[in-house]
TrEMBL record:
Signal peptide: none annotated. This is Putative LLM family oxidoreductase. Gene3D superfamilies: Luciferase-like domain. It comes from Neorhizobium alkalisoli. Coiled coil: none annotated. It comes from the Bacteria. InterPro entries: Bact_Lucif_Oxidored (IPR050766), Luciferase-like_dom (IPR011251), Luciferase-like_sf (IPR036661). Residues 1-302 form the Luciferase-like domain. One of its GO terms (cellular component) is cytosol. Keywords: Monooxygenase, Oxidoreductase.
Length: 351
């Protein structure tokens, strides 16, 4: 199994401004360096268009990471495809692939936040139609080494258009990021692309039918099952002592959830009881000692037999020294144990 990290670059509440943003971006690049040196597999960069986040242009941060890393895969997490231009997105993917020597990926989704739609002149009434059309165009561009001809509703037509540059490796992975709706599972399966499920609140067991539907749709569409991959993304904080991890992460987690839900500061106020429940053995939140994180990853592996686990470990202004320690523990204690436990298991793509 691959273990990776992702970030949205959120700022602690009340710390807006250029200096805070500069420091936050520097920490993100440093975290990616540490993850690369420690042997983790993937580093993901999210996208928001608000002053309380530092990343509105993921490709710029990915380029900085590509320049200081050697092995780690670099992906978006996620690209809000509905309010983006698929031609430009593929050109960015290819450029990062060239800069990194073939380590770029793309994760696309509709976006849980909607600030980018009015910002770039899109009508929220076209929310689903935009995504369907732009995903189809992006996948057509990715699958073609020749000129692209295209007709659609939401952008000018393409006539044998040359899309440049081409990536360093043929067909860099394009994942679909989803929140658990059946339509998303079917869409990814029919398209024949990997699927990443973001689970930040629901009990993992209830997503088993969603993953099964993706795999069934993938096979029914006749795609090569070697490309059928599943990733699970969750919030995580790991420290040597479980109680320390719980106590020190709670204020950051509660602030992040309460401030960053679509309803803003009127969103979900996480009580300590809610938090403890989510962090329990069958909850969605990964907080505790390395062994507790191992146990929960393996519990989900029994449910999903997934290929990748992605952890958001820097939310709510968590101090960078805690983030760095979490990266170390993931790499030195969690990853080896998970790989040992899953070695030799038959991937569901081959079952």
């Amino acid at each position: 199994m691959e273990i990776g990290l992702y970030t949205f670059g959120d700022l602690p509440v009340g710390t807006l401004g250029p200096e805070a943003s500069r420091r936050r971006l520097s920490e993100i690049v440093e975290a990616a360096k540490l993850a690369d040196q420690a042997g983790l597999s993937v580093f993901g960069i999210g996208e928001h268009h608000r002053l309380d986040y530092t990343i509105s242009v993921p490709v710029a941060v990915m380029g900085a990471i590509a320049a200081v890393t050697k092995n780690i895969k670099i992906t978006t997490a996620v690209t809000i495809l509905s309010s983006s231009d698929p031609v430009r997105i593929f050109e960015e993917l290819a450029t990062i692939d060239l800069l990194s020597g073939g380590r770029s990926e793309l994760t696309v989704g509709r976006g849980a936040f909607i600030e980018s739609f009015p910002l770039f002149g899109y009508d929220l009434g076209d929310y689903d139609a935009l995504y369907e059309e732009k995903l189809a165009l992006l996948l057509q561009i990715a699958g073609s080494d020749e000129g692209v001809t295209w007709r659609g509703r939401f952008r000018p037509a393409l006539e044998d258009a040359e899309i440049a540059p081409r990536p360093y490796v043929k067909n860099p992975p394009i994942w679909i990021g989803a929140g658990g709706t059946p339509e998303s599972a079917i869409r990814a399966g029919k398209a024949g692309v990997p699927l990443n499920l973001a689970n930040i609140g629901g009990e993992p067991a209830r997503f088993r039918p969603f993953i099964d539907l993706y795999r069934r749709s993938f096979r029914d569409a006749g795609h090569d099952t070697s490309a059928m991959k599943v990733g699970i993304s969750s919030h995580l904080h790991v420290q040597k002592d479980s109680q320390t991890a719980l106590d020190e992460f709670y204020p950051h987690y509660a602030s992040y959830i309460g401030h960053n839900l679509p309803n803003g500061d009127n969103g979900w106020k996480v009580s300590r009881d809610d938090y403890q429940r989510l962090a329990g053995p069958r909850g969605a939140l990964f907080v505790g000692s390395p062994q507790q994180i191992i146990d929960k990853i393996l519990y989900e592996y029994e449910l999903f037999r997934h290929d990748r686990f992605m952890a958001q470990i820097d939310i709510g202004g968590l101090p960078f020294d805690k983030v760095a320690k979490g990266i170390e523990l993931l790499a030195t204690e969690v990853l080896p144990a998970v790989r040992k436990a899953t070695a030799g298991a038959t991937p569901l793509s081959a079952a």
